[in-house]
Amino acid sequence: MIAEGGCHCGAVRFSVAVPDPPMLTDCNCSVCTKTGFLHLIVKAAEFTLLRGADMLTDYRFGTGIARHLFCRRCGVKSFYVPRSHPDGFSVNWHALDGVAALKPVITPFDGRNWERSRPGLA
Fold first, then answer.
1. Are 67 and 88 a contacting pair, CB within 8 Å?
2. What CATH number is attached to the domain comprising 34?
3. Neighbour count for residue 52 (Cβ, 10 Å)
4. What's the pLDDT score for residue 71?
5. pLDDT tens per residue across span 24-59
6. Which of 7, 23, 107, 121 is deepest in the core (most CB within 10 A)?
7. Nearest 10 degrees: CA dihedral of 30, 52, 81, 105?
8. Which residues of the chain have pLDDT under 70?
9. Is residue 15 a part of any domain in this protein?
10. Which of 113, 3, 6 is closest to 70 using CA atoms?
11. Overall domain count for the chain
12. What is the distance between the alpha carbons of residues 95 and 111, in angstroms, rounded to a whole number?
């Protein structure tokens, strides 16, 4: 299924291929916990930015590898380039439209201990 999603104000919109069932990761690191991010990891070819590239700003911390992308207007991070998959995207499940009928499989991830837990990521 192809789903669309975006930020709160609508300035940033994207489409993404969503598998059935959706395989999601629930990370407990500080940034994911504070933002309520629920990860759908996809390859770059499965993600299309429809509009809003000029509205994105990024935030980097730690190693600086992950590109946390936020809408300049409303501040929502609907997707980003993760450290674990720098050749793809992590889409926030909560930012997708029309996926309520899908039943995702959610796997916890110990992001507070990222280095030790990293080998467990698909």
1. no
2. 2.170.150.70
3. 20
4. 98
5. 999 998 989 999 999 999 999 999 999 999 999 999
6. 7
7. 70
8. 122
9. no
10. 6
11. 1
12. 21
Residue 115's pLDDT is what?
Answer: 80
- 3 forms beta bridges with 16
Asked whether residue 86 is assigned to any structural domain, the reply reads yes
In a domain, 49, yes or no: yes
CA of residue 26 relative to chain centroid, distance: 11
Show the domain range for 71.
Answer: 26-114
> Is the residue at 42 inside a domain?
yes
pLDDT at residue 122 in the model? 66
DSSP 117: H
The residue count of the chain comes to 122
Q: Rounded to the nearest 5°, which phi and psi values hold at 100?
A: -60, -30
